[in-house]
Design a protein that fits this description.
The chain is mostly helical. It has two domains: 133 residues, Topoisomerase, domain 3; 54 residues, no CATH class. Helix content is 54%, strand content 11%. It has seven helices and five strands; from the N terminus they run αααααααβββββ. A three-stranded antiparallel beta sheet has the order 2-1-5, with no helix packed on it. Strands 3-4 form a two-stranded antiparallel ribbon. Strand 1 and strand 2 form a beta hairpin. The protein starts with 5 loop residues before the first helix and ends in a 10-residue tail after the last strand.
């Protein structure tokens, strides 16, 4: 993990969304082209519906029917199979207008997706549109209120945490400050307080407990 700026975070998001949209568009384009190919075959079948049905009925097997459709009407294997997958009654009742309208919509979608994939700027506009759509659908008023206030003067001692400390003064004039918890009374048989470590031939003369934000006044006579 590493700390990044807001600009970097936004760029990572844009790159991610661009990749997602590109992958999604390629998949949808492949599906749309496949559907358009089948619809083209169905239109050919509608143009020769009686002959197509007769060809299917006189064929002994599905494989023979597929080969006859491909040879007799210039259909691809995929188109011929799509026709064979339909029941004859359903094939005979196909509505030309529905097929034509769907084909027009699919062709329009193919053109849109091809243009989108060929133009990165269009992808950026699409990202913006999708974000605005999410904002409209899920956005709610900001809960944290932002207000302008006077700038408080910052002091160096604001960085110092409050802590109870013990300050000691030795006979030789050394001053020492340590956390107060470092000083604990010794058990029976000991002398002084644990934590009062001094130099050789030196002893603690004075100890005071204070806060790290307290002021300590010393006087040297």
């Amino acid at each position: 993990p590493r700390v990044i700026s807001l600009k970097e975070a936004l760029q990572y998001y844009i790159d991610f969304r661009s990749e997602v949209i590109t992958r999604r568009s390629r998949f949808e384009l492949k599906e749309a082209k496949a559907r358009a190919h089948i619809l083209e075959g169905l239109q050919i079948a509608l143009d020769h519906i009686d002959r197509v049905i007769a060809t299917i009925r006189k064929s002994e097997t599905a494989e023979i029917a597929r080969q006859n459709l491909m040879a007799g009407f210039g259909l691809s294997q995929i188109q011929a199979q799509a026709i064979l997958d339909m029941q004859l009654r359903r094939l005979a009742n196909l509505e030309r207008r529905r097929i034509v309208d769907e084909y027009a919509e699919v062709v329009k979608k193919v053109a849109y997706l091809e243009d989108l994939l060929a133009n990165p700027r269009r992808i950026l506009f699409l990202i913006k549109e999708e974000v605005e759509e999410l904002k409209t659908k899920y956005g709610d008023p900001r809960r944290t209120q932002i207000s302008e206030e006077e700038v408080v003067e910052f002091r160096e001692e604001d960085l110092i945490p409050h802590q109870r400390v013990a300050v000691t003064l030795s006979d030789r004039g050394f001053i020492k400050r340590v956390p107060s918890r470092a000083y604990t009374p010794q058990h029976r048989g000991g002398k002084g307080i644990i934590g009062m470590v001094t130099r050789e031939e030196d002893a603690v003369r004075l100890m005071a407990v204070a806060d790290t934000h307290d002021n300590l006044l010393t006087y040297l006579g």
